[in-house]
Amino acid sequence: MLFASLWVGNSFILVFKEVIQMALTIYNSLTRQKELFTPIHPGRVTMYVCGPTVYNDSHLGHGKTYVNFDTMVRYMRYLGYQVLYVQNITDVGHMLDTGEDRMLKGSQREHMQPMQLAELYTRHYLRDMDRLNVSRPDIQPHASGHIPEMITWIQKLLDAGIAYEVNGSVYFSVPQYKPYGKLAGRRISEAQSGTRIDVLEEKRDPADFALWKKASPEHILRWPSPWGEGFPGWHIECTVMSIKYLGQPFDIHGGGVENKFPHHECEIAQAEAATGIPFANYWIHNGMLMIRGEEMHKSLGNYVTLAQAFEHWDPMVIRFFILLSHYRGPIDFTEEAIEAATKGLQRLTNLWQELNRRASNAAEGELSSQVKGLVDHTSRSVNESMDDDFNTPEAIAALFDMTREMNGILAGESLSRASLVYARDFLVRFVGDVLGITPPQETKQGDSDNTAGLVELLIESRNKLRQAKQWALADNIRDGLLALGIELRDGSDGTSWKCLH
Ligand SMILES: [Zn+2]
User: Fold this and answer.
1) Between these two residues, 220 and 124, which has the higher pLDDT value?
2) 92 & 11 share domain
């Protein structure tokens, strides 16, 4: 049992809260087995997930990663855990193994300052995540805002003798850190980052990785350090920012499986070599998203950004499609799979809408034992599935079973309001709160016609205001419509509008 405080009347009272969190098992990539989840502090979870490098628009693969982790956070909150969820924004220093700096490349491509680019794509990222109904992390630290902490951490590694400085750059000495490779199950000989000759010449061992890089003349983002002007390596930001906000060790570290090696391996090495304390207790890796059986690559011409996908499919269909597969597996994005997800989601939301509709004018009465039995059974079954390493496809299968049976009950008898609300509220809690599927909007007939008429009227008024040079009022109309999800576009042949939802 846990104690929780409640504000009742004028005073706090302590109440017992049943512990329903005991059965959650998680596949821990570090131990390569499913383990009963035991947080460091009972009732609380500290969780870090590697965020995006904001040099480009997010693609469908990002959608999968952040929907997967968001659903885990939502489920743990549903179980009663107080979750502190941190996800970083990489706005500096994401060097690829080839030595290419993603932020620098993006700013050259778009003729923007790196920070301008980071700001633009951070906004795009948040916009796309909002549309997928991914809850915002509790803390979203930017790498560029934590340079002093990274410098301090690098100094710690130098003091410990596990890092060395060459020509203004600092490298982590991998052969000196024996546990290196424990997460990915790789040997040091397989680790090699930085294929450029000059980088290889600086390193004592090809497996060593950069903690700090000396800035070349074209580098705009640079900071002073004890080793001269430069910028941090990519891996150090996650070690430093996760520990700063969550402590060491913390409970869960997550990220895409493509980051397991070398990124996560390096994060562990930096954290544990500096302090001798374990870094994160559970490592969760989610599988990749494939496009018609192939990995997504710009060079293959199958690269789909979330913004492009939303032009064709409802963001909730994409979220549901992602949840129809287990987070650890890869998923294949095909037209047929999206079609199937659309139909499946429709079945669930139709029931949800029907329960809503009937509940608004149903007669009072007892809660039907048949409905209670069905809902309670489904509730137990979805909890069991989610407790089993967040098995969303199995949970959704139980929801489909319930939908079929509930439709049968609704066809045969008129239920009391209590029964309809009991079933509806379960969908609100599980489909809405846990799976993050937003409830269907009730639309009355004629609504869309009225909307079109009203928007046209507002466009006309805005045009008159613009002719009268009343710019602020005209912008007010445009911004107000945008806040309602209607975007105005001014073109050579007048103003057109588009519904964003
Ligand atoms: Zn990371």
Assistant:
1) 124
2) yes
Using an 8 Å Cβ cutoff, are 287 and 331 in contact?
A: yes
Furthest-apart CA pair in the chain: how many Å? 80
pLDDT digit string, tens, across residues 309-318: 999 999 999 9
| Separation of CA 146 and ligand 1 centre (Å) | 14
Name the token pair of 152.
Answer: 């301090």
Q: What is the whole-number distance in angstroms between the Cα of residue 235 and the centre of ligand 1? A: 6
255 CA distance to ligand 1 centroid (A)? 7
pLDDT value of residue 200: 66
Q: H or E element: which one contains 273?
A: helix 265-275
* Structural domain span for residue 219: 2-286
> Is residue 46 exposed (0-12), middle (13-18) or buried (19+ Cβ within 10 Å)?
buried
Per the structure, the count of domains in the chain is: 3
Chain centre to alpha carbon of residue 128: 10
What is the chain's percent helix, strand, coil content, to nearest 5? 50, 20, 30
Look over the chain and give the mean of its residue pLDDT values, rounded to a whole number. Answer: 89
Q: From 434, 463, 482, give the residue that closes a domain.
A: 434
Q: How far is the CA of 370 from the centre of ligand 1 (A)?
A: 49
Mean pLDDT is lowest, of 374-388, 390-404, 470-484, for 470-484
CATH number assigned to the domain comprising residue 392: 1.10.730.10
In this structure, the answer to whether residues 60 and 205 fall within a common structural domain is: yes
Please give the residue that has the higher pLDDT: either 428 or 114.
428
Kindly state the average pLDDT of the residues 403-410. Answer: 97
447, 450, 452, 454: CA torsion to nearest 10: -130
Q: Is the pLDDT assigned to residue 259 strictly greater than 60?
A: yes
Q: How far is the CA of 259 from the centre of ligand 1 (A)?
A: 8
Q: Are residues 464 and 375 in the same domain?
A: no
In angstroms, what is the span from residue 403 Cα to ligand 1's centroid? 40
What span, in angstroms and rounded, lies between the C-alpha atoms of 5 and 17? 10
Domain-embedded: residue 77: yes
